[in-house]
Amino acid sequence: MAKLNYTDGSEVRRTFCTLCPQHCGMLFRVDGEGEPQAFDGDRNNPVANGKLCIKGTTALEIHRHDDRLNFPLKRVGKRGEGKWERISWQQAMDEIAAKLRDLREQDGPESVATLGGTHKTPGDWASWRWAADFGTPNFVSQGRNCGVSEYIAEISMYGWDTVYQSFYPGKTKCIVIWGSNPAESSPPSFERLRQCQAQGAKLIVVDPRRTKTAARADLHLPVRPRTDGALALGLIHVMIRDGIYDKEFVENWCTGFDEVEKEAAQWTPERTEEITGVPADDIVTAAHMYATLGPARLSFGVAATQLGEGASRSAVLGRSILRAISGNLDRPGGEPLGNPYDENTFSWLPNINFEKLVDHPLRTRESVNAHETPITSISGYKAFREATAKIYPEGHTGTAYVLFASQPAIYRAITEQDPYPVKAVLVQCGEPLLSMGAGKAAYDAFTSEKLELLVTMDMWMTPTAQLSDYVLPAADFMERADLSAHWGIGNFFVVGQQSAEPVGERRNDYDLWAELGRRLSDDPDYWPETVEGMFDRFLAPSGKSYREWADGEVNHRFIKPVFYKYKERGFATPSGKVELVPSLFERFGVEARPVYTGPPYSVPDAPEGEYPLQMIPGSRVRELTASNLRQSERLKRIHPEPICDVHPDTATQYGISDGEWMIIERPEGAIRQRARLDPSLRLDTVNPDGYWWNPDEAQYEPHLSGVWVSNANAITPGAPELSSFAGDQPLRGARCRIRAGEEPVAPPRERVLTGTTTED
Ligand SMILES: Nc1nc2c(c(=O)[nH]1)N[C@H]1C(S)=C(S)[C@@H](COP(=O)(O)OP(=O)(O)OC[C@H]3O[C@@H](n4cnc5c(=O)[nH]c(N)nc54)[C@H](O)[C@@H]3O)O[C@H]1N2
Ligand SMILES: Nc1nc2c(c(=O)[nH]1)N[C@H]1C(S)=C(S)[C@@H](COP(=O)(O)OP(=O)(O)OC[C@H]3O[C@@H](n4cnc5c(=O)[nH]c(N)nc54)[C@H](O)[C@@H]3O)O[C@H]1N2
Ligand code: SF4
Ligand SMILES: [Mo]
C-alpha cells in the first residue's frame, strides 16, 4: 500500500474508522507534507465494502478542529476552576507515575482505578494490560455497559459465545433483533439484515419503540421496558407447550431442561401479556416463527444488559436458553459459536496478560464490586478460564468482560472508602459523567478530597477532563498506527496505517500506558517502545509483522467459520453440555434459573405513584456516537438539540407540546430535552437522547459544558446494589416523571482555547 497514486506526489494510506465500533475500512489521500486531504471508504475492506456513514465523513473536521487538545495540562487552580499550566509529557508521566507508585506502596495497587469507554483500539487493551502489570483489578472499559451480563450468561451456559456473530443472507430464515436497533447503531449489520430479508428471512423486533429496524419487521413486540425476562419465559413456555423446541438437541446436549420447564410453566401467553404488555397472540406467533422457520439468529442487543438487578439476569438467561432449545447453536445461518483464534492468526489474551493480575505479588484484594457481584471477579475469571480451557486453551477471549469492575462501586470506593479506598482514577477513551451512568455519583467521586489523582486523556476538554488534575491530548485514529480485533471476540482482525502527523503533542493512547508502565513495571520488556512493537506481538502467529500487514496487499484476515464444533469437542462448560441452568452461576451464589424479577419492581427505584413513566435513555442515533462528535458543525446541523420521544397522549396528559422543551425528572435530578411526539411509542415510556453535553456552553464549574442540563445519565440511578449480577448498570427502564418546562440551563461558553492551540 502507501504507493504514489497521484501525479502531485500524494499517497494513499489505508486504515479503518474508529468513530464508532464498526471499524469500517477507510482510505486517506495524504499530501507531500503528510497531511490528509481527502478520504474515501475502502472497497477492499469487507466490513462495509467501501461505505462510510455520516459520522465517518467528519474525520477531517475532527482532526483539524480548533477545540482539540494539543498539549498536556496540569491543574494549578482548584479542581474544575479551569486554571492550567502547560507541561511536557515527560513531566506529566514522571509526576503521575510517582504518585501511583506512592499509592501502590501505601494503599496497595487496588487503590488505583482506570475508566475507559467504547472501543478506541489501543486505549482498551493497553489499559487492561497496564492494570495487570500494575496489579489493580479495578479497571473498566468498553463493554462494561454493553454486554458483560450477556457474555457471562452465554459463556456459563454454552462455554462459548455468539455475541459478535451475525446473520447470513440466504441461510438465516428468522432474525430476532431484541433491544437493539442496527438501523442507527450499525450500518454494516443493517445492510446485512436487508440482504437477509431480500432473500426471504423473517424479522421479529423486540423493542418498546417502533424503531427504523422495527419498521421493517414482520412482527414487532413493543415490550414494556425491563420485562424482557418475562417475555423470554413466555416464548419458552409456548415452545415447550406446543412441542416446537429441538427435542433431540435438548436430550443429547442440554442439562437443566426440567428446571427451565418448571419455571416457564407459569408464563402462559396471557400472564406474559399482563407483565410485558405484548399481546398474547403475538407471543404465540413469535415463538412459532422463531422455532419453525429454519435457522434463526437472536442477536445481541445492549438493552437486555442494561435493565438492572433481576431484570437483566432473567433477560440474558432467557435469551440464551431460547438460542439453545431452538437448536440453533452453531448451526449454519443460526447462532455461530465464536471460533478461537487459531495458531496461524492472532494471539490476544497472552498479550493482555490477565495471568499477571491473577498472580500479582502486590495484589491482595479482589475488585471493589466482587463481594456484591462475585462472578465478575478474579475468582470468576479463574472459574471461566478453567471451564473454557478445552475450547480456548489461551482462555476465552471474552474474559476481560468477567474481570471488569463496576463503575458505581468505584465511585463508592472513592467517596466512602468502602470496601477499601480508591484514591486515583485514570480516564481514557470514556466520559464517565456522560456515558457511564450514575453521573452524579461520578461527579461526587471526582470532586471528593479523598480522590488524590484524576487523570484524563481525551481529544477534547470534556466535562470529566475539566475536573481533572492532569489532562493529556489524545491522537485521533488518523494520527496513529492501528489494529482492531474487535476486543478479541470477532472472527476478524484489521490493521491500519497512520495517515496524519499528530498535531501538537497529541499521542497514541498506547503511549500513556507504556510510559507509565516503563516507570512502574518490574519487567523491562513488558512495554515495547512503540505500539507497532506491541502489534507485532499480537500478530506473531500470523507469520507477518504489523508493517507487513499494514503495507501488504491485504490488511485484514477473517477466520473461516466452522459449524457444529461441539459435536467433536462438546461444550466448554463444566459438564461439557449446554447448561440451561448454569453451574457457574450456582457456584457463585447467583440465581441460575431464569426466574423473572423485573417490574413490578424488586429493586428499590423511585416510587411508582410519583414517577409513573419509564425512561429508556441512550438509544443510538445514526449521526452521533455516545457523547462524541458534539463538536462537529456538520453533525450539529443534523442534531442540534437533545430530543425526547413521547407518545402524543402522554404529552397531552402532562401539558407538553411537540418541539417544546420538557423536563424529565427522577430523585437524582431534572434535565430538559425537546419533546418529539411519537405515536408508535408505548404510553408509559419516554425515550430521551443520551450522553448529551454541549461544548459551546460554559466550561468548568458549575456548568461543566452543560453536563447537568440535558444529560440523561446524570439522573440514572447509581447505587452499586442496583447493578445486575454482573455489575452492569440500570441504564434503561428507570422510573421518571415529565412536565413542560425548561429550567436547567447553562450560559454559552467564552471561547478561550486554553491549552488547545498549537502555539506556546
Ligand atoms: N443511558 C445509557 N447509557 C449508556 C448506554 C445506553 O445505552 N444508555 N450505553 C452504554 C454503552 S453500551 C457504552 S459503550 C457507553 C459509551 O460510553 P463511552 O465510551 O464512555 O462514551 P463516549 O461518550 O463515547 O466517551 C468516549 C470519550 O472518549 C473520547 N475519545 C474518542 N476517541 C478517543 C481516542 O481515540 N482516544 C482517547 N483517549 N479518547 C477518545 C471522546 O472524546 C469521549 O470523551 O455508554 C454506556 N452508557
Ligand atoms: N450511531 C451510533 N452507533 C453506535 C453507537 C453510538 O453511540 N452511535 N454505539 C455503539 C455501541 S458502544 C454499542 S454497545 C452499540 C449498541 O447498539 P444497539 O444494541 O443497537 O443499541 P441501541 O441503539 O441503544 O438500541 C437499544 C434498543 O433497545 C431499546 N430498549 C430500551 N429499553 C428496552 C427494554 O427494556 N427492552 C427492550 N427489549 N428494548 C429496550 C431501545 O428503544 C433501543 O432501540 O451501538 C454501537 N454503534
Ligand atoms: S459506521 Fe460510520 S462511524 Fe462507524 S466505523 Fe463505519 S464509518 Fe465510522
Ligand atoms: Mo457499547
Shape: globular
- How many domains would you count in the coordinates? 4
Could you tell me the number of beta strands?
A: 25
Spatial arrangement of strands, main beta sheet: 5-4-15-14-13-6-7
Poorly predicted sequence stretches spanning 5 or more consecutive residues: none
Question: What percentage of the residues does DSSP assign to strands (E)?
Answer: 5-15%
The quaternary state of the protein chains shown equals single chain
Describe this protein's structure:
With 760 residues, this protein is of the alpha/beta class. It folds into four domains: 54 residues, Single Sheet (N-terminal domain of TfIIb), CATH 2.20.25.90; 288 residues, Rossmann fold, CATH 3.40.50.740; 171 residues, Dimethylsulfoxide Reductase, domain 2, CATH 3.40.228.10; 128 residues, Barwin-like endoglucanases, CATH 2.40.40. It is built from 27 helices and 25 strands. It has a seven-stranded mixed beta sheet with strand order 5-4-15-14-13-6-7, with helices on both faces. Strands 20-24-21-23-22-25 form a six-stranded mixed beta barrel. The chain has a four-stranded parallel beta sheet with strand order 10-9-8-12, sandwiched between helices. Strand 4 and strand 5 form a beta hairpin. The longest helix has 19 residues. The radius of gyration is 25 Å and the shape is globular. The model has no long low-confidence stretch (mean pLDDT 93). It binds ligand MGD (2 copies), iron/sulfur cluster (SF4) and molybdenum atom (MO). One ligand MGD binds next to helix 5. Keywords: Iron, Iron-sulfur, Metal-binding. This is Molybdopterin-dependent oxidoreductase. Belongs to the prokaryotic molybdopterin-containing oxidoreductase family. InterPro entries: Asp_de-COase-like_dom_sf, MopB_CT_Acetylene-hydratase, MoPterin_dinucl-bd_dom, Mopterin_OxRdtase, Mopterin_OxRdtase_4Fe-4S_dom, Prok_Mopterin_Oxidored.
